[in-house]
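Customer escalation, tier 2.

The customer says the design service returned an amino acid string that "doesn't look like it belongs to this structure." They asked us to rerun it and document both sides in this ticket. The original structure tokens are below, unchanged.
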């Protein structure tokens, strides 16, 4: 039996034990598993990393991939789940969280800009390029009403019910939309931001699309929504929207000095928009478990995993690529 198989078997046993406990007690909650399978619950340690996470499937799977690989290399890796973007930024700034693989840029600049400029948060690398993040409409709505820009919305205010559907309360995207409403940008001053979780927003988009009702919502790519809804991202001629061009990996200040091998690993992490979109589809459409999506991806992409481990040693000081393959 290989070292890799042994660890995966132990992890599966932990999962089954936790699952049985949740069934018996009937009171399991997300907060009980915030720290993954590792013992660390806060940042600042050596040979360890605590990741920040919002309930975004691409981020969740990428965190799982990182945790599973690092655990097999002997490092203590865990995830602090269900944080808002603001809480994640604050925790990185104070060192209570070590790393964040979901720094959408420049849309998160209002939240992270001062921390990065002040040296409290370090930018490690760009993990995903070619992203999109903006208010959008389904393709049928764009064709029927001729809506391709934020400047087109208010002309059709009654059709849209003067509502823009957003995601989790407090997210930078929601805040930018609300700021545009408050400033009466594009005549949207009498519009309403409907904040909800991502699944609720997507359910509303699907419901409206099936009913033939126009809807404008906060959209992003990579995601299956771009295919299912033929999503049209709205142009922003007055540049009130920050947009997004890349997703970056950031860490607390000093993390690279405390954990140079893990930091090197994090800097090597890259994913394509197609891969991220596949993560969403596997979870949301096929109903796969996040951890299973991650482990299957790891097994199916040995060359990519090897690139993640380039120049990295495991917790025993041995080349990580050799240790992982053994």
């Amino acid at each position: 039996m290989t070292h890799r198989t042994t660890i995966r078997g132990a992890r599966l046993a932990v999962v089954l034990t936790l699952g049985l406990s949740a069934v018996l007690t009937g009171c399991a909650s997300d907060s009980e598993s915030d720290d993954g399978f590792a013992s660390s619950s806060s940042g600042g340690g050596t040979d360890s990393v605590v990741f920040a996470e919002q309930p975004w499937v691409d981020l969740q799977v990428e965190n799982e991939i990182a945790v599973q690989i690092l655990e097999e290399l002997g490092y203590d890796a865990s995830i602090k789940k269900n944080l808002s973007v603001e809480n994640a930024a604050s925790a990185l700034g104070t060192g209570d969280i070590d790393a964040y693989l979901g720094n959408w840029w420049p849309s998160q600049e209002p939240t992270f800009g001062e921390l990065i400029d002040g040296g409290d948060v370090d930018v490690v690398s760009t993990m995903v390029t070619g992203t999109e993040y903006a208010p959008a409409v389904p393709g049928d709505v764009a064709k029927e009403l001729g809506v391709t820009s934020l400047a087109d919305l208010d002309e059709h205010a009654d059709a849209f019910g003067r509502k823009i559907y957003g995601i989790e309360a407090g997210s930078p995207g929601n805040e930018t939309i609300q700021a545009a409403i408050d400033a009466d940008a594009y005549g949207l001053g009498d519009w309403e931001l409907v904040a909800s979780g991502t699944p609720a927003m997507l359910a509303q988009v699907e419901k409206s699309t099936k009913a033939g009702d126009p809807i404008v919502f906060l959209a992003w790519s990579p995601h299956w929504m771009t295919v299912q809804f033929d999503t049209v991202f709205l142009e922003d001629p007055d540049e009130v929207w920050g947009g997004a061009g890349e997703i970056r990996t950031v860490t607390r200040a000093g993390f690279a000095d405390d954990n140079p091998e893990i930091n090197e690993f994090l800097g090597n992490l890259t994913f394509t928009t197609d891969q991220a979109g596949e993560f969403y589809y596997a979870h949301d459409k096929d109903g796969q478990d996040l951890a299973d999506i991650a482990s299957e991806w790891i097994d199916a992409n040995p060359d990519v995993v090897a690139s993640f481990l380039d120049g990295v040693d495991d917790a025993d000081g041995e080349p990580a690529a050799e240790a992982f393959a053994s």
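Tier 2 assessment: The sequence is consistent with the input. The two ends are 10 Å apart (CA to CA). The chain is about 45% helix and 15% strand. Sent an explanation to the customer and offered a walkthrough call.
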